[in-house]
Amino acid sequence: IHARPRRAPRDHSPRPRPRELGRGPGSRDARAQVPSLSALNCSVVVLHTGSWDLGSPGKLPTPLASWRANLGKELASIRKSVRAPIALLSTSYTPLGKWHLACPPMEWRAPECVDAYNAVQREVAAEHGATFLDANALLGPVWDSSGDWNHWDHEGFAVMADLVVAARDRLAAA
Questions:
Q1: Could you give the CA distance from residue 30 to residue 98 in angstroms, rounded to a whole number?
Q2: Residues β-bridged to residue 88
Q3: Among the listed ranges 46-50, 57-61, 82-86, 123-127, which one has the minimum average pLDDT value?
Q4: Which has the higher per-residue pLDDT, 25 or 60?
Q5: Is 24 helix (H, G, I), strand (E, B) or coil?
Q6: Whose CB among 62, 74, 127, 152 lies 3.0–4.6 Å from 53's, allowing a Cys bridge?
Q7: What is the pTM of this model?
Q8: What is the DSSP string of 65-117?
Q9: Residue 151 neighbours by CB under 8 Å, 6+ apart
């Protein structure tokens, strides 16, 4: 006879919920959903983008100049529709796997490419009065520890969540 451990009761207290607005700057889905962002009455808007623009396996990345222009348009559009502070969360590193190391590469989210995208994000954020949150400053040292060679485990997501919540609290108080 095996006894199942009892689950802890669910915490039903209200908490902010993230909303996914599309698949990267310039996507038709994201632009179409910007008006709904103002209806959410957010205290802070945090965007985590860049991963798909860097090219999912088998697709080429968006060139940096296009990335800059698209991201700038998105931030300007969001800035017009919300009064809340805006933060950009850095694009995360993904471990080097078979797609990164193929010849020619089929995956572009290697550290040097991610760093180039994050440099653009940092500059565009400053140009549009947004805050840049560098998750790689915290998660960079363990960038290759992902169990599935792509997504963070619960500890990595906890670190990222702590960074976002701290920024939300700091920006909402400003």
A1: 31
A2: 47, 132
A3: 57-61
A4: 60
A5: coil
A6: 62
A7: 0.73
A8: HHHHHHHHHHHHHHHHH--S-EEEEPPPP----HHHHSSS-S---SHHHHHHH
A9: none
